[in-house]
Design a protein that fits this description.
Elements (H helix, E strand, L loop, with lengths): L1 E4 L12 E3 L2 H8 L5 E3 L2 H32 L3 E5 L7 E6 L1 H10 L9 E2 L4 E3 L1 E10 L2 E10 L1
Parallel strand pairs: 4-9
Antiparallel strand pairs: 1-2, 1-3, 5-7, 6-8, 8-9
Length: 146
């Protein structure tokens, strides 16, 4: 039986893939869990339209991410915090503090997209990566002032 996957199914395929599976597997597992539908001419044409729309949306998202990455180029965030005389912080700079500093500069980034290699525990300049989209990263400098 030919089916069209409505969701990603481990070991079978990704969303919108057309696959050939055993009749019992489709009727007893895939169809009841709404993971797939039977591949008819109507469902195939509808799926192709949805796939094209999704690809177009992904292209727009990548374009926006590239534009945002360009805005991040050369950006230096200054964060003031308490530190000892020799430059050690009493805590560390977290993703949330970087997000709030970015909000002040009119950027909306969620904390899970920020990647800090080593915990920031000293005064000075530190490099931080921001994952904007699949494969698109921007690097900013965080300057910690004591």
């Amino acid at each position: 039986m030919r089916i069209i996957l409505l969701q990603n199914v481990r070991g079978l395929g990704k969303k919108f893939d057309i696959k050939k599976v055993a009749d019992g597997y489709a009727r007893n597992f895939l169809f009841p869990k709404n993971l797939a539908v039977a591949a008819t001419t109507e469902t195939i044409s509808q799926t192709e339209k949805e796939r094209d729309a999704r690809i177009e949306k992904e292209k727009e998202g990548l374009k926006k991410a590239e534009q945002t990455a360009g805005k991040f180029k050369g950006l230096v965030l200054k964060i003031k915090t308490k530190a000892t005389k020799d430059g050690k912080l009493f805590g560390s700079i977290s993703n949330q503090e970087i997000v709030s500093a970015l909000k002040k500069k009119k950027f909306k980034i969620s904390s899970d997209k920020i990647e800090i290699k080593k915990p920031i525990k000293k005064v000075g300049k530190h490099s931080v990566k921001i994952n904007l989209a699949s494969g698109i990263q921007a690097e900013i400098t965080v300057e910690v002032l004591g």
